[in-house]
Amino acid sequence: MRNVDKISSNIDWITVGFYSLFVLLGWFNIFAVVYDPEAEATQSMFDFSMNAGKQLMWICTAVVLIIMILVIDFKFYSTFAYVIYGLVILLLIITTLIATEVNGSRSWLDVGFTRIQPAEFAKFATALALAKYMSPVNVKFERFETKLVSAFILALPCVFILLQNETGSTLVFSAFILVLYREGLSGVILLIGVMSALLLVLTLIYDKFIIVYVIGGLAFIVILYLIQAATNSTKKRLLWRNIFVVTIVGGICCGVVFGVDFFVNKVLQEHQRNRVMVLIDQELDPKGVG
């Protein structure tokens, strides 16, 4: 256990204050959504039969977990990181096999008094395992085997979460790219991810062939610039390599554009597709006119 005085002195209380404020605002909003001023029975935020009461229960649970995490020595997490990761993977496998379908997803386990979603536990378990693997000084992310093992640690829970048809939780794991970028992952990977997200949104709004024509035009302009800039022998030797890279990147972008239909119709769940369409309609017609 850690010293309480040492813990309190290292806490960013401003962040804690903002966090607490946002949690309370969220709780109030949940109660406001379900509150019925015309109801005969008295409604209370502390009624556990209402959504606000259930949310309060999880808020209290979160506070207890936060305190436990703070007071437990960090060596515990380092020692049991792989154990926790393995147990969560096992839980994901069990969920995939026995969970009942809820809103098109088979990711919830009924434990009697409540339901849990192991995909949520997989997020912090993956972070622990990845941190444990990359923490030794002799582990260099520049090595191919380090990248391979890191990719395996990230991909394993994603596979089982996808099998549960829980696409939204799987997409959250893409945020680990930012962590790996900090450790030395090529910025090209991060750029491809950002471009893919941008192309996905543009393809949903505009005709995909128009976007492909734009990509082709931009690639052609870049290639012309490279040819013009290759004035000396050194640059000429690199010219074909650069043209090859531009061609590959353009091909990947076109592949993303033509793959959007598959992603939306086959990967996303129905409620996620509907939500995407609503957001696009709001973007195109923010006033709801037309």
Commentary on this structure:
- The protein is built from twelve helices and three strands.
- With 290 residues, the protein is mostly helical.
- The chain folds into three domains: 72 residues, no CATH class; 97 residues; 97 residues, no CATH class.
- Helix 2 packs antiparallel against helix 3 and helix 9 packs across helix 11.
- The N and C termini lie far apart (62 Å).
- The relative contact order is 0.06.
Structure described in brief:
By secondary structure, the protein is mostly helical. The chain is built from 12 helices and 3 strands.
Neighbour order of strands in the largest sheet: 1-2-3
Provide the β-strand percentage band: under 5%
- State the major sheet: 3 strands, antiparallel
Write the element-wise H/E pattern from the N-terminal end onward.
Answer: HHHHEEEHHHHHHHH
Task: Supply Rg.
Answer: 25 Å
